[in-house]
Automatic annotation (TrEMBL):
Pfam families: His_Phos_1. This is Histidine phosphatase family protein. It comes from Pseudoxanthomonas spadix (strain BD-a59).
């Protein structure tokens, strides 16, 4: 397994998201697309063996990260992507969000609700728009097959939001 590769951070193109004034803790959103899928169901496929290996790599990568919440959208493949991370902890449960809903409202709610580290898995085409809404900046869209992207958004009250675009696991 390859470790995280350092990549360039995205510079905000609009004013950075602002946390409530009472927020003194760091909030970190970790966004990943679902891992590689099988061809078992055209509407809601499971993860392939490669995808299951990537989900395990994600769990290993986040082993020491103190997650406070884990979100996945309504699809089986995204839920299976975060399942090894949840199983390794035992103290967290999966929260679901609607991937076709208003992502700006979802982002606003999460920014207000959470302090600490939050893992979010979603459809590849929804990850960049969700990241954009969370950081109030522009994140490079995922390309087809970029199942190894990990976008880390760090926000601290009174500081600019930091965005890191990384890779994890074996190259797809």
């Amino acid at each position: 397994m390859m470790g995280l590769l350092a990549a360039c951070a995205s510079a905000p193109t609009r004013p950075a998201a602002v946390l409530p004034a009472h927020a003194d803790a760091e909030t970190v959103f970790i966004l990943v697309p679902h891992a590689e899928t099988a061809e078992d169901d055209p509407d809601d496929p499971a993860l392939s063996p490669t995808g299951r290996a990537r989900a395990q790599a994600l769990a290993r990568q986040l082993r020491d990260v103190p997650l406070e919440a884990v979100y996945a959208d309504e699809f089986r493949r995204t839920q299976q992507t975060v399942m090894p991370t949840l199983q390794a902890r035992g103290d967290l449960k999966l929260s679901r969000y609607f991937s076709r809903g208003p992502l700006d409202q979802t982002a606003r709610q999460w920014r207000q609700q959470h302090r600490g580290h939050v893992l979010v898995a979603g459809e590849p085409e929804a990850i960049a728009p969700l990241a954009n809404a969370l950081c109030n900046c522009t994140v490079r869209p995922l390309q087809a097959g970029e199942t190894d992207r990990l976008i880390r958004i760090t926000a601290v009250a009174g500081s600019p939001v930091r965005v890191e675009d990384r890779r994890y696991g074996a190259p797809p």
